[in-house]
Each structure stands twice: as C-alpha cells, then as structure tokens.
Design goal:
337 residues; Rossmann fold; single chain; five-stranded parallel sheet; Nicotinate-nucleotide--dimethylbenzimidazole phosphoribosyltransferase; binds alpha-ribazole-5'-phosphate; 50% helix; cobalamin biosynthesis; alpha/beta; binds nicotinic acid
C-alpha cells in the first residue's frame, strides 16, 4: 500500500480531514454498558476505554482480533555528542534481535496476542546532528512518514507504535522543548542510563537544538529539524491508523514525542489514541500532560520498543471482554436495584 501523500501539502490536508468515531455505535455500547451486571461505573476506566474503542471500530460489542505492534528504527547524528550510554551500532543489532524474536517487546507481543512488524529506516544513513543542522531534509521527512503510513496493516484492529534508535530520547526531548517550551532539563532524562556528565551534555544538546530553530512554529518542520526517522515514522503510522479507524495505544516518551507533533499540528489528531503507560523517563509525565492523556499503566518502564503500549493491550482486552461478554441484568435475572 502506498501513502496518500507525496508532499507536505498532502500531509497537511490529511491532518485536516480526520475521521470521527461512530457516535451511534458508541451510544449503543454505552446503552449496553448501562445494563451489564455490575454497579454503574464499577469497572472504572475500563468502561470508558471500551466505549472509546467501540466508537472507533463502529461496533457496540467489539473484540480484539488483530492487534499490530509496528517497530521503527533509526539512527541519530547527535549520538556523536555522547548523549547515550550505548553506541549507535546497537540500533541495527537490536533490529536483528527483534527479527530473531529475542527482545522484550517480542515476548510481550506474543504474550498479548499481537503481530509484530519491524521497519529499519536507512540505518546506515544517520540523521544530521540536530544541534548544528536539520536532522532531515523534507524528502527524508516525507519518506519516513510514508514508511510509517505503509507499515500499518489496514486490517489491524489496534496499533501500538514502537521504536529503536540509540540517541532518540535526546531527539524526543528536543522536539518536546521546541513545541512546549520550558527548560531543557525539564524534558531531558537519562534514557539508557547516562551518568551525570552525560545528562548535562544531553540537556545542552537539547537546549542548543531547540534554540537553533527558535521561532519555528510548524510542528512538521520541528520534526524535520530535530528528527529522527523512527519518530517521523511513528507519527505517520499514528496518522494512518486514524484514517483506517484503527485505535492506537501510545508507548513511552519517544512515541509520545511523535504523537505531540500530530497533536500540535491538528487539534483532536490523537482522539483515536490512549496512553498505554507512564514510564520512568523524566519528561514523560509532562509530555502526557501536554497530550491531555492519563496513562493506563504506571510500571516504571524505561525501555521503549513499544513495550508499555503492548502491555496495555491486556488492559484493553479486559475492557472489551467485559463490555462484549457480560450478561445484562435482564439476561442473568439479577435485580438491578
Ligand atoms: C539493548 C537496548 C535495547 C533497547 N530497546 C529499546 N531501547 C531504548 O533505548 C534507546 C533510547 O535511549 P538513549 O537515548 O539513551 O539511547 C532507544 O533505542 C529506545 O528504544 C534500547 C536500548 C538498548 C541499549
Ligand atoms: O520512555 C521511553 O520510551 C524510553 C525511555 C528510556 C529509554 N528508551 C525509551
């Protein structure tokens, strides 16, 4: 499948023509939820989660049959500044590990019944060092976003977008700072575990990258300037999911930085997405606040790869099993008070 855009104007048009959920299906689901054998509201956020999903899928008794975890990988020029605890080669090595089934996210995808696809993006061509130059050309940005779009299986009924890219917490922090403002240190965390000196170098790179493009208010240009390809691809995938009416579970800090670009580009662009978890990367809580999303889980994860989003598939499965499988008061002969 090709992506339905070839230039930034085409992409902007897609951001302005966002499909809405099916209000009738959602109302049917809400009516059903009100009759199920439980005190109203007793399943807490599971109830709103199930109704949200029902609306996007256009059915009042949905089940999860084909969840997809799509993982995008990219390399970052900024790594040469010593902003990660690991070398850039690890990105390609981990792609091999994903393909062989050995990574954490492989186990989680299997445990929660999801298909996993892996999409390396020009790994031998790192993005430009965003401190001194644009991370990507316009052509690079469009190619990465189109790769993200194409990666989404139109037959999937849920998408988790994940990433691998040594140095990408630095790029994600720079994007967040450029779009949300504040101080570099508020958005900069330890990623793979940099020491204090590494954290200081990283915050400096984040500050300088954002300062280089100060005044740039176009979220797509901010993404192009600060990178990287896997972040752009996640943004493309989340937007494709919207057009296919596939609900999305967001992952950690890096995935949420990709989501922030869409959120700032078009209000409501993330209505088809929920936050899977709040991780340990400092800045993730602030980023979720900027997105206006409350996380489903909070487990201290700081891995990425789509791991937290994939874990949250279990929560969604539980929510849908209750909405679609429970008996009503009338069916079960239970007095409804
Ligand atoms: C073995 C290994 C597996 C990973 N899986 C995800 N990440 C995570 O760590 C990286 C971001 O951290 P930083 O910005 O500090 O480089 C990303 O690749 C992210 O997916 C990994 C990192 C490593 C080392
Ligand atoms: O929150 C994340 O996605 C994250 C945090 C640390 C390292 N890699 C990813």
């Amino acid at each position: 499948m090709t992506a339905p855009f070839t230039d930034l104007a085409g992409l902007r048009a897609l951001l302005q023509e966002l499909p809405a959920p099916d209000a009738a299906a959602q109302a049917d689901a809400a009516a059903r939820n009100a009759q199920l054998t439980k005190p109203m509201g007793s399943l807490g956020r599971l109830e709103e989660l199930a109704l949200w999903y029902a609306g996007w899928r256009g059915t009042s008794r949905p089940r999860l049959a084909r969840p997809q975890v799509a993982i995008f990988a990219g390399n970052h020029g900024v790594v040469a500044r010593g902003v990660s605890a690991f070398p850039a080669e690890v990105t390609a090595q981990m792609v091999g590990n994903f393909e062989a089934g050995g990574a954490a996210v492989n186990q989680l995808a299997r445990a929660f019944g999801a298909t996993m696809t892996v999409h390396p993006l020009d790994l031998d061509r790192p993005t430009g060092d965003f401190v001194t130059e644009p991370a990507m050309s316009e052509a690079d940005l469009l190619a990465a976003m189109a790769a993200g779009w194409r990666a989404v299986d139109p037959e999937a009924d849920l998408l988790v977008a994940g990433e691998m890219g040594i140095g990408n917490t630095c790029a994600a922090s720079a994007i967040a700072l450029a779009l949300e403002g504040g101080e570099a240190r508020d958005w900069t965390g330890r990623g793979t575990g940099v020491d204090d000196a590494g954290l200081a170098r990283k915050a400096e790179a984040v500050a300088q990258g954002a300062a280089r493009i100060v005044g740039e208010s176009d979220p797509l240009q901010v993404l192009r300037q600060l990178g990287g390809r896997e972040i752009a691809a996640m943004a493309g995938a989340i937007l494709a999911a919207r057009h296919h009416r596939i609900p999305v579970i967001l992952d950690g800090f890096i995935c949420c930085s990709a989501a922030l670009v869409l959120h700032r580009a078009a209000p409501g662009a993330l209505d088809h997405a929920v936050a899977g978890h709040q991780g340990a990367e400092s800045g993730h809580a602030r980023l979720l606040e900027a997105l206006g999303k409350a996380p489903l889980l909070s487990l201290g994860l700081r891995l990425g790869e789509g791991s937290g989003g994939t874990l949250a598939i279990g929560v969604l499965r539980g929510a849908l099993a209750c909405l679609s499988g429970m008996a009503t008061f009338a069916e079960a002969g239970v007095s409804d008070g």
